[in-house]
């Protein structure tokens, strides 16, 4: 079924000048960018986005990293978009990511892991709405 998922190109990948290469992978896999913007997240924005991880030991570092530079947030649309995006990204820890995945090719550490993608339909709905108003999403 056609789904939408939220993708974030994180500060490490933006700093590496890899925005285009990463978006190319989405497009080549049949995912369409239906919304996109570059943001430099505040602590409040990053902390709210990752609220489910608030009690985890890595939360402070995660927020620190996600506010360290600009990110590109996008809504990807396509058949089975949530799982497809997660396949393209590879495992959260780049050291465990399969060859040819975005994290294997662009990421160095579990903190600086190049991309985020929604992990379920419920989180996709929440995450898309966290960054985009309905009139900023151009379904096609
Ligand atoms: P992301 O998919 O953006 O969701 C939460 C992020 O926390 C994750 O990617 C990692 O970059 C980061 N993180 C750091 N340590 C861990 C950990 N032990 N388990 C899961 N995520 C972690």
UniProtKB/TrEMBL annotation:
PROSITE patterns in UniProt: NDPK, NDPK_LIKE
Transmembrane stretches, start-end: none
All copies of domain Nucleoside diphosphate kinase-like, residue ranges: 2-139
Record: active site: 116
Key words of the record: ATP-binding, Cytoplasm, Kinase, Magnesium, Metal-binding, Nucleotide metabolism, Nucleotide-binding, Phosphoprotein, Transferase
Cofactor(s), names only, from the UniProt record: Mg(2+)
Catalytic activity: a ribonucleoside 5'-diphosphate + ATP = a ribonucleoside 5'-triphosphate + ADP; a 2'-deoxyribonucleoside 5'-diphosphate + ATP = a 2'-deoxyribonucleoside 5'-triphosphate + ADP
Subcellular location per the Swiss-Prot or TrEMBL entry: Cytoplasm
Primary location group: cytoplasm
SUPFAM superfamilies: Nucleoside diphosphate kinase, NDK (SSF54919)
Signal sequence, start to end: none
Entry keyword Kinase: yes
EC number, as in UniProt: 2.7.4.6
Keyword field contains Lipid metabolism: no
GO molecular function list: nucleoside diphosphate kinase activity
Enzyme class, first EC level, given as a word: transferase
Family: Belongs to the NDK family.
Function recorded in the entry: Major role in the synthesis of nucleoside triphosphates other than ATP. The ATP gamma phosphate is transferred to the NDP beta phosphate via a ping-pong mechanism, using a phosphorylated active-site intermediate.
Assembly behavior: Homotetramer.
HAMAP family: NDP_kinase
UniProt-recorded name of the protein: Nucleoside diphosphate kinase
Organism, as annotated: Billgrantia bachuensis
């Amino acid at each position: 079924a056609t789904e939408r998922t939220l993708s974030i190109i994180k500060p490490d990948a933006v700093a590496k000048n890899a925005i285009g290469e990463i978006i190319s992978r989405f497009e080549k896999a049949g995912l369409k960018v239906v919304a996109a913007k570059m943001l430099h997240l505040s602590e409040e924005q990053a902390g709210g986005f990752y609220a489910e991880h608030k009690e985890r030991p890595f939360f402070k570092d995660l927020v620190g990293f996600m506010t360290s530079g600009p990110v590109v947030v996008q809504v990807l649309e396509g058949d089975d978009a949530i799982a497809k995006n997660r396949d393209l990204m590879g495992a959260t820890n780049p050291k465990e990511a399969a060859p040819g995945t975005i994290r294997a090719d662009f990421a160095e550490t579990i903190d600086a892991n190049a991309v985020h993608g929604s992990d379920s339909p419920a989180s996709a709905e929440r995450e898309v709405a966290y960054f985009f108003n309905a009139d900023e999403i151009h379904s096609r």
